[in-house]
Design goal:
The chain is an alpha/beta fold and 482 residues long. It is built from 16 helices and 19 strands. It folds into 3 domains: 171 residues, VC0802-like (2-Layer Sandwich), CATH 3.30.2130; 210 residues, HUPs (Rossmann fold, 3-Layer(aba) Sandwich), CATH 3.40.50.620; 80 residues, Oxidized Rhodanese, domain 1 (3-Layer(aba) Sandwich). Helix 7 packs antiparallel against helix 8.
């Protein structure tokens, strides 16, 4: 099977050196992703397109390839094509019939041809000749150039004819790694994962920074959503998950700072810590999920006061986005259910928060804060490569990993529903589907007398959850990693 990958339109308007660099990064990202599915996949770079060839033939494997390409930033379309040496115009129909004859039966159609190169015919000539031959040689109901039921899709590039079987829409954006890295402050709600996705889509290698305000389960949930974003959209780029213990910071705020200013000062403390960590990583920009006026700390005045603590650029991709639109985007990218099930912990809730903080008064309140506590929090930050999150749980009980399901056990498929639907798990024993973002909440419903084996495909999320369940429940939990 051959695929033609069309670049995001903005790549085409870059200067030649920049365009060449972006194309090279996209090709590298695709090879890294697709070789997990087909080790022998071939990705060939071209000035106006990439070509991907695979020997895989099973529909499920091809669907996985297409899905991986569809969620790779930098791509506008993925075309499933049959490539042929360009014949004479009146012979093109013979290459089209095997692909479209059955689809046209009883339906209206139109032929669309895109052409690049020098030829003695036009795209309209091809559409007219092929359309007439298909009308005469198939059971099509007729030609409808305005609203056809089937579009016969052809592309001619130089002396090659591509008969397009299917056209899949890509993410757009820039290839990850083609733009400078950023450090994203992620809390696991609706907003910050969407903001992180948008920076990833725009080509920024996005590291994740989490401030733990005291909730162990909350950190597990945020690790999950960060890992999900990286696995789905991160193109195997090496990024960090950084956790900063902020419980002592919260306690100091509650005891030393006026109630009305706690929210603003907490955000200033987070930005101070983020600024230091970003400096150590040589990262120039921070990312937050803040949106104007969504909560009291996000008024324009308060955001300006918060930003005073850093010279670093603070990106807010959602700054003028309605909450409903954010939730819809979260649903589209697959993070909405994480947010809905997130065991969020909030240690600072002001009764009467200020919406128009004054910098001098905020600074005066901060004089009461022991900055040594913030220094301790920064020094205690834990940095983990995101692909090693499960392995980082060294203090948890050992997890038994088996390549064959145990007789009498129940396998729990904890993958995201989108992934589970794409490649269903088929075994000769009981399989239960519980998405990993619901697993901890539903653990109380599981039978303590049954052995459960968690399955997630790559084995990272299943290890992470098995470790957590063994530490927090009496369940017999293992990992199934074929």
């Amino acid at each position: 099977m051959k695929f033609v990958v069309k670049y995001f339109s903005e790549i085409a308007i870059k200067s030649r050196p920049v365009r060449r660099r972006f194309i090279g990064q996209l090709a590298e990202n695709l090879r890294a992703l697709l070789r997990d599915i087909d080790p022998d996949v071939v990705v060939e770079r071209g000035w106006d397109k990439l070509q991907v060839e695979t020997a895989l033939q099973e529909a499920a494997e091809l669907a996985r390839l297409v899905d991986a390409m569809r969620r790779t930033p930098g791509i506008t379309y993925i075309l499933e094509v049959a490539a042929h040496p360009l014949p004479a115009v009146d012979e093109i129909v013979h290459q089209v019939l095997p692909v479209y004859a059955e689809r046209l039966a009883g339906r209206t159609f139109a032929v669309r041809c895109r052409r690049s190169g020098s030829h003695d015919f036009t795209s309209v000539d091809v559409e007219r000749v092929v359309g007439g031959a298909l009308l005469a040689g198939t059971d099509a109901a007729g030609v409808n150039l305005t609203t056809p039921e089937v579009t016969v899709d052809l592309e001619i590039s130089g002396q090659t004819l591509y008969v397009v079987g299917r056209r899949h829409r890509g993410l757009g954006g820039y290839p990850i790694g083609s733009v400078d890295p950023v450090l994203s402050l992620i809390s696991g709600g609706f907003d910050s994962p969407v903001a992180s996705y948008l920076t990833m889509k725009r080509g920024m290698r996005t590291h994740f920074l989490f401030f733990n305000l005291g909730g162990r389960d909350h950190e597990l949930g945020v690790r999950e959503v960060a890992l999900y974003l990286w696995q789905r959209y991160g193109c195997n780029q090496r990024v960090l998950f950084i956790s900063v213990p902020f419980e002592e910071v919260v306690a100091e705020l509650l005891g030393k700072v006026r109630d009305a200013m706690m929210g603003v000062i907490l955000k200033r403390m987070m930005l101070r810590a983020a600024d230091r960590i970003a400096g150590d990583l040589q990262i120039d920009a921070l990312v937050t999920g803040e949106c104007v006026a969504q909560v009291s700390s996000q008024t324009l005045r308060n955001l300006a006061v918060i930003d005073q603590v850093t010279q670093r650029l603070v990106l807010r991709p959602l700054i003028a986005t309605d909450k409903e639109d954010i939730v819809r985007m979260a649903a589209r990218i697959g993070t909405r259910d994480f947010a809905a099930n997130m065991p969020e912990y909030c240690g600072v809730i002001s009764i009467n928060p200020t919406t128009r903080a004054r910098l001098d008064r905020v600074q005066a309140q901060e004089q009461n804060f022991d900055m040594a506590i913030l220094e301790r929090a920064i020094a205690s930050a834990r940095r983990t490569r995101i692909d090693a999150l499960a392995a980082a749980e060294l203090e948890r009980p050992d997890v038994e990993v088996l390549s064959i399901p145990l007789a009498g056990s129940t396998v729990i498929d904890i993958r995201h529903p989108d992934e589970e639907e794409l490649t269903p798990l088929r075994l000769h024993q009981a399989v239960t589907k519980i998405p990993f973002y619901e697993l901890h909440r539903r653990a109380a419903q599981l039978d303590p007398g049954t052995t459960y084996m968690l399955y997630c495909g790559r084995g990272v999320m299943s290890r992470l959850h098995a470790s957590h369940l063994l530490a927090s429940t009496d369940l017999d939990i293992k990992v199934y990693a074929p």
